[in-house]
Design a protein that fits this description.
about 190 residues; 6 helices; about 55% helix; about 5% strand; globular; binds zinc ion
């Protein structure tokens, strides 16, 4: 039983670390599409992720289509769960895969809501500041579900207030006239027209 709980917890932690590394090194790494048969190499996954992620940075309300994510998950989770299943036991592999997959889903929901909905508590407000600052300074704040990885790897920045370009500010942050809502005045400032 202890092994199963531990495997699930490792799955959760495993996703948060994968998310950080993928975001930092694939999302903002140097790899680009090349001439020739780049799409037949294993690096194609990194390049395609980079392209989807760049599109999200150009338009923060763009998220990669669900079918692409479902396809990636359907391949990745059984592979990741398969390794501990083979090394230890099937229930341990299942628990690891479940922890990993569940935290991935939590990431999808959290990331989307950061851009679409106002925070409902101080913790979620802090997570929004962390990620929205990443949209201004893409070299910093890569962790979404676990901003703690940015502390570990020295990529954390906590400006106070967070400065956002008015055009890229989430809709929940501004009123109909495009002015910063008063309840967020201490945490954010908007620049540009
Ligand atoms: Zn984002
Ligand atoms: Zn990014």
């Amino acid at each position: 039983m202890v092994a199963i709980v531990l495997a699930a917890a490792l799955g959760v932690a495993g996703w948060t670390l994968s998310e950080y590394l993928m975001h930092r090194f694939a999302g903002h790494g140097p790899l680009r599409r090349k001439e020739g048969l780049w799409f037949l190499t294993p690096l194609a996954v990194v390049i395609l992720f980079h392209e989807e992620h760049s599109a999200h940075h150009r338009d923060p309300l763009y998220f990669a289509p669900a079918w692409k994510k479902a396809l990636a998950t359907a391949i990745l989770v059984p592979v990741l769960g398969g390794v501990p299943a083979w090394l230890v036991s099937a229930p341990v592999g299942l628990a690891f895969g479940a922890g990993f997959g569940f935290t991935y889903l939590a990431y999808e929901v959290l990331h989307r809501r950061i851009h679409t909905h106002p925070p409902s508590n101080r913790y979620l407000a802090w997570m929004r500041r962390h990620h929205l600052h990443h949209h201004v300074t893409p070299k910093m704040n890569h962790g979404v579900t676990m901003p703690g990885w940015d502390v570990v790897f020295g990529t954390r920045e906590t400006p106070d207030p967070v400065t956002l370009n008015r055009k890229l500010a989430p809709r929940w942050l501004v009123d109909e006239a495009g002015t910063l809502r008063r309840e967020f005045a201490a945490e954010y400032q908007l620049v540009g027209r």
